[in-house]
Design brief:
Elements: E1 8-9, H1 17-27, E2 31-35, H2 39-54, E3 61-64, H3 70-77, E4 85-88, H4 91-103, H5 110-118, E5 121-122, E6 131-132
Parallel strand pairs: 1-6, 2-3, 2-6, 3-4
Antiparallel strand pairs: 4-5
Length: 133
């Protein structure tokens, strides 16, 4: 992401929701990136979304990784978060979504509308871009 013009704050692996919340409050990111390679990490994303919601955080969340699917994102993560939850099938898709968020500060592009209709873009709100992971 940093090679493509994004400022990245990498919090590392096995980051607790509280640590993420504190970083979001400090850094004020335009988006949050979460990656999960294990089923356990996918389940943790649900809890993280709930905790972010309780903390009144609603910046877009980009999720991806081997443990996730579009259906899981739509059915399990998105219902627990008022902000957008976007599923990226791979790194290039994540970059594309991040660029869409960056370029569309007040409205959703046609491509993103199609993603929302197909379940790739989940959420109610959208903002511009900077990644926090």
């Amino acid at each position: 992401m940093s090679n493509n013009g994004f400022q990245v704050v990498d919090l590392g692996i096995k980051v607790t929701p509280q640590t993420l919340i504190e970083a979001v409050q400090k850094e004020k990111p335009d988006m949050i990136g979460l990656s999960g390679l294990l089923v356990k990490s996918a389940q943790q994303m649900v809890l993280t979304a709930q905790d972010l919601q309780k903390a009144n955080i609603s910046v877009p969340i980009l999720v991806g990784g081997a443990a996730l699917s579009r259906k899981f994102t739509k059915m399990k993560i998105s219902p627990h978060y008022d902000g957008p939850v976007l599923y990226a099938k791979d790194a290039m898709d994540g970059l594309s979504l991040a660029n869409e968020l960056k370029s569309e500060s007040s409205s959703i592009s046609n491509k993103t509308k199609k993603r929302r209709a197909s379940g790739t873009f989940q959420g109610k709100k959208k903002e511009s871009s900077r990644k926090l992971s």
